[in-house]
């Protein structure tokens, strides 16, 4: 498995899980798009490995902090551990 593939699939899993936690609905389109993108990035890694891994890392970081349909995944994890209390 290519190095970028794991990062893209991790980001995809986080997006799908966050959508499911917040809306009780599975984000099928995001899952399919993530699988297609991981195959594309594996091919791109054959051309330029640092570029593909860098873009995949940026994708993972963006997924963690970008709120979609409410909270970002990091906010959701913070709410779980703090009991949903705001500071």
How does this structure look, described?
The protein has helices at 3-23, 28-47, 49-65, 73-82. Helix 1 (3-23) runs antiparallel to helix 2, helix 1 (3-23) runs parallel beside helix 3 and helix 2 packs antiparallel against helix 3 (49-65). By secondary structure, it is mainly α. It has one domain (3-82). The longest helix has 21 residues, at 3-23.
Largest sheet: none
**Domain count:** 1
Distance between the termini: 42 Å
Order of helices and strands: HHHH
Which structural class do you get from the secondary structure elements?
Answer: mainly alpha
The helix fraction, in percent, is: over 70%
Would you spell out the secondary-structure blueprint of this structure?
Blueprint (H helix, E strand, L loop, with lengths): L2 H21 L4 H20 L1 H17 L7 H10 L5
Helix pairs in contact: 1-2, 1-3, 2-3
Give the tags.
87 residues; mainly alpha; elongated; 4 helices
